[in-house]
UniProtKB/TrEMBL annotation:
Family per record: Belongs to the copper transporter (Ctr) (TC 1.A.56) family. SLC31A subfamily.
Origin: domain of life: Eukaryota
Protein location: Membrane
Transmembrane segments: 49-67, 99-119, 125-141
PANTHER family, sorted: COPPER TRANSPORT PROTEIN (PTHR12483:SF115), SOLUTE CARRIER FAMILY 31 COPPER TRANSPORTERS (PTHR12483)
Keywords: Copper, Copper transport, Ion transport, Membrane, Transmembrane, Transmembrane helix, Transport
Protein name (record): Copper transport protein
Length: 154
């Protein structure tokens, strides 16, 4: 149904013009006009803000790889510590370790899903920034991390 005759004009909600509204592309694009990244407040309005946003996305993806590495190193060190512990103290210590591992796991999943939402802007520049960040993050932090992904996303 054609709604062009319904008098919506070029005004968005709250009286601001369409020129400043976030675009919601559901198809792949390289266009950065009115690009918003996950949040309405992360609105790319200029070439400078695009460049800073892409750098921030690269860094965010790198931090995700650092978090994965940190989690695996923590798990390995705690497994060694628990193995050296007397049996009577091991159960209680193992429960604390498991709680921390669960928190790290939840944080990794939250982070991965947030990066997936960033990727799902369907903007080519943003997608490349996430991938470059994953590459650089793995290059810097991935010495002890398997290259095979454990999560379904990111």
């Amino acid at each position: 149904m054609d709604h062009s005759h319904m008098g919506h004009g070029h005004m968005g909600h709250g009286g601001s013009g369409m020129d400043d509204m976030c675009s919601m592309d559901m198809l792949f694009t390289w266009d950065t006009t009115n690009l918003c990244i996950v949040f309405r407040q992360w609105h790319v309005r200029s070439t400078t803000s695009l460049v800073f946003s892409l750098i921030a996305i690269v860094l965010l993806a790198m931090v995700y790889e650092a978090l994965r590495s940190l989690s695996r190193r923590f798990e390995a060190s705690q497994n060694r510590r628990l193995a050296d512990m007397p049996r009577q103290h091991r159960v209680q210590a193992a429960q604390r370790v498991h709680l921390i591992k669960a928190l790290l796991y939840a944080l990794q999943n939250f982070y991965a899903f947030m990066l997936m939402l960033v990727f799902m802007t369907y903007n080519g520049w943003v997608m490349v920034a996430v991938s470059v960040g994953a590459f650089l993050g793995y290059l810097v932090f991935g010495q002890s991390t398997s290259a095979t992904k454990d999560n379904a996303c990111h």
